[in-house]
Amino acid sequence: MSAAPLAIVTGGKRRLGAxxxxxxxxxxxxxxxxxxxxxxxxxxxxxxxxxxxxxxxPFVHDLSEPATSGSLIAAVTAHFxxxxxxxxxxxxxxxxxxxxxxxxxxxxxxxxxxxxxxLLLAQALVKAAGxxxxxxxxxxxxxxxxxxxRDQLSYTLSKQALAASVRSIAAAFGARARVxxxxxxxVISTDEYDxxxxxxxxxxxxxxxxxxxxxxxxxVLYLAAATHVxxxxxxxxxxxxxxxxxxxxxxx
Length: 252
Hints:
By secondary structure, the protein is an alpha/beta fold. It has one domain (6-251): NAD(P)-binding Rossmann-like Domain (Rossmann fold, 3-Layer(aba) Sandwich). Helix content is 41%, strand content 14%. It has helices at 15-26, 43-51, 69-80, 104-129, 153-173, 195-204, 213-225, and strands spanning 6-10, 30-35, 56-60, 86-89, 136-140, 178-184, 233-236. A seven-stranded parallel sheet has the order 3-2-1-4-5-6-7, with helices on both faces. Strand 4, helix 4 (104-129) and strand 5 (136-140) form a beta-alpha-beta unit. The longest helix has 26 residues, at 104-129. The mean pLDDT is 96.
């Protein structure tokens, strides 16, 4: 059994999840990296894992099926010999529906992956940890939960629900587990953005810059170690939550 603390990161092989996983690896964590496809982690993450001799294991799991959350925690616990010390609920579905395109199906799909699975993973983790270990749960949210706009409505609603759950679940778990959230802004853009647009968006932020994914990873690591903090959300967004935007960043 490894003496290193163990973190499970959903969606931990690429993009923001890979950044979080790399930061935890550098801090000495063993890692359970969960994805729905059996693919290698990003090259940059693989390099960090190799450089630090990280004990890590990939787990292929369909996170859109909340009822199977317990089996994932059981598999991770069995492999490493103990329950995870940290759960980072990073995986998410990001649809493009507006109010007129929202359906029961879009709502169900987003809430299943973005809300129900994180909640049931947290429940399964606390049960697996028992009375002797106090695990930490960090939910990756979105700065828009404060000032929502009209785009990606099913996604936004599911993230607002997850954000609201932070305080409720923290209160419910009490001393059994700490529950916090990190709400990023535009930290990793897609191919739809160009450099000029990103520069324009940076000028709209109160801090005059877009946030870096490393800042999100640093916030996760802080909350993992902040033994007296629970029920809190840290915004890593360049101050975006202080303003109200009419549209998603891609349309600005």
